[in-house]
Amino acid sequence: MKTCLVLEGGALRGIYTAGVLDELQNTDIKIDAIIGVSMGSLIAVNYLSNQPGRALRYNLKYCKDKRYISMHSFLRTGNLVNKEFAYYEIPDTLDPFDYETYQKSKTKLYCTVTNVENGKAEYIEIQDAKEQIEVLRAGSAMPGVSKIVEIDSKKYLDGGIADSIPVQKAISLGYDKIIVVQTRPKEYQKKEKSKSFSWLYKKYPYFQKALENRNRNYNQTLKDIQLLQKNNKIFVIQPSKKIPIKRVEKNPYIIKDQYELGREDFKNLEQELRNYLNRKAG
C-alpha cells in the first residue's frame, strides 16, 4: 500500500500545513510521496528534513522583515519574496536547513510548477533540495509579484496556476491512499477575478489563459475532491474554522493561530485517518 500527501499552497495560509505535518511527524504513519504546490512544497521539505517547528519559527521571526516578503523587496528586486534572503540566507545561515537528512529520506517530493510557455503543470522531483532550490522557488513564484524563473531553458511560475490541488496527479501515479491537506475551509469557493495580472503575460497566451481560468478549474477540483472523499478514495484535512490570515501575513499571532489550528485539526482527525489508511483499497 503506497501513500501520497497532496499539499495545497496559499502563501502564508500554508502555515496550517506546517502544523498538520509537524503533528504527522510525531506518528508512525508512513508517507511514500508528497506532491506539493507553492508553499506546500516549502513546508514539505522541512517534514522530510525532520525539522518540526522550523517553518513556523522562521516565518514568525521574519514576517515583518523587509528583507523577507515585502514591497521593499519587490521594488528593489522584482520579487515580493526576496530570492537571496528567503531561499539562500535563511536556509544556509540564519535557520539552517538539514540538507543531509533530507537527502536520506526515502519519501519522494514532487514540486508543482507552471510552465509559462504552455500554461501546463509540471511535477519536478526534488532529489537534492540544495541543488534544486530554484525549482522550489519557481513553484512558489506568485504571478504579478515575481519574476519568471528559468530552469534548463524553461520558464516557470507558481504551480498553483495550472494545478492548485494535484489529486488527479497522485491518482495517475498509482498511489493507493491519498491524503489531501487544503488551506481553505470546506465552504470556500474561489471567486471570479477580473483577469488579475493576466495582462502582464500577453507574450504567453497559454499562461494568460491558465490564469484567467484558474478560479473555474479550482472550483471544479473542489467538486472532484468532495466526490472522491465521499467515496473514501481520499482523506482530506482542511481548516475546521476560518482564520483571517492573508497570503502575505505580517501579524505573528495570526500566523501562530493558523499553525496551531493545523496541529489541532490533525490530532482530532488522526484516528479517522488511521482507519482510512488501514481500510483496503478498492
Notes on the structure:
- With about 280 residues, this protein is α/β, with parallel strands linked by helices.
- The chain has helices spanning about 15-25, 40-50, 55-60, 70-75, 85-95, 100-105, 135-140, 165-170, 205-210, 215-230, 250-280; strands at about 5, 35, 110-115, 120-125, 150, 155-160, 175-180, 235.
- The chain has eleven helices and eight strands.
- Helix 1 (about 15-25) links the parallel strand 1 and strand 2.
- Helix 1 packs across helix 11 and helix 3 runs antiparallel to helix 11 (about 250-280).
- The termini are close together.
- The model has no long low-confidence stretch (mean pLDDT about 95).
- Strands 1, 2, 3, 4, 5, 6, 7 and 8 form an eight-stranded mixed beta sheet that branches.
- It is globular.
- The longest helix has 27 residues, at about 250-280.
- The protein is about 40% helix and about 15% strand.
